[in-house]
Amino acid sequence: MSRQVPEDGIQLPLMEEFYTIQGEGYHTGKAAYFIRLGGCDVGCHWCDVKESWDASIHPLTSVDTIVQHADQHPAKTVVVTGGEPLIYNLDPLTKSLQERGIRTFMETSGAYPLSGQWDWICLSPKKFKAPRKDVLEAAGELKVIVFNKSDFQWAEEHAAQVSPNCKLYLQPEWSKAAEMTPLIIDYVMNNPKWEISLQTHKYLNIP
């Protein structure tokens, strides 16, 4: 998957790019330009963008082109997501974005070595491939997707590994929201270091 992409990071497999409202986590409600890279081997069965998994079906696109597109929008904030973006060398992408005064945010499972310079990292660890220590320590927010009751203990295990200033979020998996949300509400009330994250863009029908 990653072998098809130049290691210098000047081209990346671009699945899609779009300007929208961030729907989840710490930056919910803010305008941002999303860059979704293709390629992921973490393999969450409930993933809602499985078409992102195969990097080979997404065109290699130059960083210059990606940054030009991002710079055309009023909000000077980019969210790099996937797939799993840390499969690739993201140093050239973040350097070019920041040179244009664009803030760099990332959403990652943390399963690969950290690259790029980031203003904010949202770490959403997955059970299928453990997050690395360097990403755990750099995360600004830990966002745990709650699919079943055992995920609360799993969330606590990862909360113990991030920095003391890291924001902690529990988010119901969309297909289980009706079942899990009441449990999350109770959990946060009893463990107020956590906050609730919802996929507000889905409730508001924002693409």
UniProtKB/TrEMBL annotation:
The keyword 4Fe-4S applies. S-adenosyl-L-methionine binds at W46, C47, D48, G83, S124, P125, K126. Substrate binds at I21, Q22, G23, R36, T81, P207. Pathway: Purine metabolism; 7-cyano-7-deazaguanine biosynthesis. GO terms for biological process: tRNA queuosine(34) biosynthetic process. It comes from the Bacteria. [4Fe-4S] cluster binds at C40, C44, C47. Its cofactor is S-adenosyl-L-methionine; Mg(2+); [4Fe-4S] cluster. Keywords: 4Fe-4S, Iron, Iron-sulfur, Lyase, Magnesium, Metal-binding, Queuosine biosynthesis, S-adenosyl-L-methionine. Gene3D superfamilies: Aldolase class I. Catalyzes the complex heterocyclic radical-mediated conversion of 6-carboxy-5,6,7,8-tetrahydropterin (CPH4) to 7-carboxy-7-deazaguanine (CDG), a step common to the biosynthetic pathways of all 7-deazapurine-containing compounds. PANTHER family: 7-CARBOXY-7-DEAZAGUANINE SYNTHASE. This is 7-carboxy-7-deazaguanine synthase. It comes from Sphingobacterium corticibacter. The gene is queE.
